[in-house]
Amino acid sequence: GRPNVLMSPMAFLQKPVRWFRAISRHRVTISGGPNFAYHLCLQKITDDELEGIDLSTWDVAFNGAEPIRPATLERFIERFARVGFSPRAFFPCYGMAETTLIVTGGYKSDPPIIRHFDGRALDEHRVVTVPEDFDGARAIVGCGHVLPDEEVAIVDPETHVRLPEGQVGEIWVRSPSVGRGYWNQPQLTDETFRAKLAGGESPDYLRTGDLGFFHQGELFVTGRLKDLIIVRGVNRYPQDIELTVEEADSRIQAGAAAAIVVEAEDRERLVIVAEVERKRRPDWSDTIEAIRKAVVAEHELPPDAVILVQFGSIPKTSSGKIQRSGCREEFLSGKLKVIQQWIGWEAPEESPIEEPAAESPTKAPETTAACDVDPQVAELVMDHVRAIAKERAKSLNLDSNIAIDLGLDSLERLQIAHALEETFGGRFPEEVLAEIETVREVAQAIAKYMGTEPKRRRKLDVPVEELERREIPPSDYRFAEFPEYKRLKQTMQMLSATGMPNPYFSVHESQTRDTTVIGGRSMISFTSYNYLGMSGDPVVSRAAQEAIERYGTSVSASRLVSGEKPVHGELERELAAFIGTEAAITFVGGHSTNETTIGHLFGPGDLIVHDSLAHNSIIQGAMLSGARRRPFTHNDWQELDELLTEVRHEYRRVLVVVEGVYSMDG
Asked: Looking at CB atoms within 10 Å, which of 142, 354, 447, 600 has the fewest?
């Protein structure tokens, strides 16, 4: 076996440098991702963050799952060579989920193969090699040779005839690693997983839907026959997006919308082309806005451009189907009969915001007057949204939906959330982060879970207005409508459907030590924290009986009021003397100890750093406090030291939590 280090994609998207730090810390030799991941590193990792990074152990940096861009490889090598990244580490490959990932790849010691072909010839499915400086040359990254036990055929998608090397066709795969089909989709399974070559007996092949060719034994992928759209790591089918566009506005012609992908500004862009009705209008901005909102709401993928064209002008086949390739060509050549358009990457960008200086006075934005949010919080939310949305935030107000109105994708929204968490020194609860959509809701969530004061404080002269009255929904006062209760019932139903007994609330019929009795059976117990066997010990039992006879079965009040008994002080003094400290206080259980103490002493603006195997009570206490929480690898004091060196100055109080005995891993 080989040790593996797993990282949450969310952690990477929030701060891409974490990927590099993990490689450095664990001396990782093999790691990778889609082209998008490498491009994001180029965009987001600063020179300051590269301090202490060492990528010299990274032997294989695989790149696949979406189009591989030569410019990304070249810029990545140029930028990160100074921290040890080797050009020979890049490993372009080809594969997909249906083939259990990899199908082709190169040799680890060889650098990526980038060859140049005539772009116009490729569009005609012909392979013509040209010099790099040839007019119309298209650079394509090779995806390697076919791996052992794999068979790859380049096939005419219409006739199913195998094509020779040097011709573009659909990529078909035959391999023991190919899946058996799509779950509960027999027709699609037959079409995709059981394709046969023309001309006699043929085994089953997988139709990948990708177009490509072999050149000198190397596979080159040129496009997608099946029209799957991949933009920023998000996969969508164009026909689904086109249906959404048609339904977004009644003035859009049915069956006359195309969702296409073009390359602009060094990445793939989603472009919507749609015909509109035969009516003269001075301004179609509302239709463009409706399309943008509808696509984001339905597909979580904001369009980069929306082009409205004349009625009957979209290229179609003789049978009336949209020619997406024709739309793409006319868009790139400027031949579309445009009525009005919005192209996001050509719009002027606003300057990025600067962090507020300490104690600098400010006024609330005009939209925050007479509202139910803190004006300073609202202004900071808007600042961070504008920094990411740029020209899309020109009409930003408190009730702007960050996803739908502004067309921000999930990564951009995550960047905003992360920036706000750093500004206010707290964190959004996961369930809240999934629900807040408008600027108002974000500002209210910050006030509730992080407080209203940013770490870099500013004075405000604008008072917070009284909360507006609202209609109270049943989910706020009917227990059966509580989301928490509904989730519990759903979990119970799922457990019941498996036929397994409920593992919780089992009845223990004796003293619970290293053994217990359940249903009359003596069993070994791994669940008790009676570690020393004091519960049930004869000496302890006699002392408890004497205390009950003297003080009763309950202290009958909190210790603060009238529940303090002599045994409380005696126990705490003995514990303090045993540990060697000046005083101690006891709680009824460890869970409540951690929740109460951590939740009381720490809050927004603080940081709680804990061992990754810390007990759940520590995690819950940290969450209840509102402080930011960061784990470090179990018993790795060096990682803890690196973390504190990096972020200690950003927080007020910092609590480091470790345990003497760790039990959460069993």
From this structure: 354
Per-residue pLDDT tens over the stretch 127-183: 999 999 998 888 999 999 999 999 999 999 989 999 999 899 999 999 999 999 999
Please give the pLDDT value at position 218. Answer: 95
- C-alpha distances in Å from residue 647, one per residue of 9, 138, 191, 593, 606: 21, 45, 54, 27, 11
What does the block give as tokens for 548? Answer: 């009950």
Question: Of 396, 373, 374, 377, which Cα lies nearest the Cα of 386?
Answer: 396
Domain count, the chain: 5
Q: What is the CA radius of gyration of the chain?
A: 31
Q: What pLDDT does residue 233 have?
A: 64
Instruction: Determine the structural domain holding residue 200 and report its residue range.
Output: 114-224
Tokens of 351: 């300057």
Q: Rounded to the nearest 10 degrees, what angle do helices 410-424 and 439-449 cross at?
A: 40
pLDDT mean across residues, the chain: 85
Residues 206 and 192 reside in one and the same domain: yes
Of 173, 40, 48, 11, which Cα lies nearest the Cα of 646? 48
The reported pLDDT for the residue numbered 91 is 96
Specify which residues 269 forms β-bridges with: 262
Is-contact 567 573, C-beta < 8 A? no
Low-confidence ranges of the chain (pLDDT < 70): 226-228, 232-235, 237, 317-321, 347-371, 455-470, 665-666
Q: Can you say whether the dihedral through the CA atoms of 584, 588, 590, 591 is positive or negative?
A: negative
The reply to whether 556 falls in a domain is: no
The answer on 141 and 63 residing in a single domain is no
Output the DSSP codes for 491-528.
HHHHHHHHTPPP-SSPPP-S--SSEEEETTEEEE-SS-
Rounded Cα gap, residues 643 and 604, in angstroms: 19
Q: How far apart are CA 438 and CA 445, in angstroms?
A: 11
The Cα–Cα gap between 127 and 167 comes to 6
Residues 6 or more apart in contact with residue 566 via CB below 8 angstroms: none
Same-domain pairing of 215 and 258: no
Cα dihedral sign, 389-394-395-396: positive
CA distances from 475 to 436, 471, 483, 489, 490 (A): 17, 11, 7, 15, 16
Q: Is residue 537 part of a domain?
A: no
pLDDT at position 354 is: 37
190 and 135 in one domain? yes
176 shares a domain with 158: yes
Q: Domain check: are 46 and 159 in the same one?
A: no
Question: What is the total residue count of the chain?
Answer: 666
Q: Nearest-CA neighbor of 217 among 123, 113, 88, 108?
A: 113
Q: Which of 288, 314, 340 is the last residue of a domain?
A: 340
Query: For residue 147, what pLDDT is reported?
Result: 95
Residue 456: the pLDDT is 53
Q: Give the closest residue to 193 by CA, choosing from 125, 105, 96.
A: 96
Shared domain for 251 and 192, answered yes or no, is: no
Specify whether 177 is located in the same domain as 240: no
